[in-house]
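Q: Given only this backbone (107 positions), what sequence would you predict?
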């Protein structure tokens, strides 16, 4: 199966509302796997999955806000999404939360 075929399968699941596929589709757009890289589309799909509690999407959406990729850079929004993932005991988000707290204090 090609990357493009995998992408199409993931996209179909995401459009049908499967949260894991929504998060994975965001990642595909973010890195350009099977599709042209598109940060704005990545944010769209990360947001859909993050609002449903997917920790990977919450953390990745936090990264998009932190770096200003696909959205305007916003440390407070980054912290919001890192907090949501950290509350679910996602270790990467717990670390990211500590880093961003420093930026928010200096903002």
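A: Predicted residues:
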């Amino acid at each position: 199966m090609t990357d493009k075929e995998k992408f199409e399968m993931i996209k179909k699941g995401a459009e049908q509302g499967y949260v894991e596929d929504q998060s994975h589709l965001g990642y595909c757009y973010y890195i350009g796997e099977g599709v042209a890289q598109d940060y704005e589309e990545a944010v769209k799909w990360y947001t859909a999955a993050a609002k449903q509690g997917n920790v990977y999407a919450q953390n990745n959406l936090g990264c998009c806000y932190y770096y200003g990729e696909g959205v305007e850079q916003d440390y407070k929004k980054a912290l919001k999404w890192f907090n949501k993932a950290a509350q679910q005991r996602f270790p990467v988000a717990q670390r990211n939360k500590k880093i961003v707290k420093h930026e928010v204090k200096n903002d």
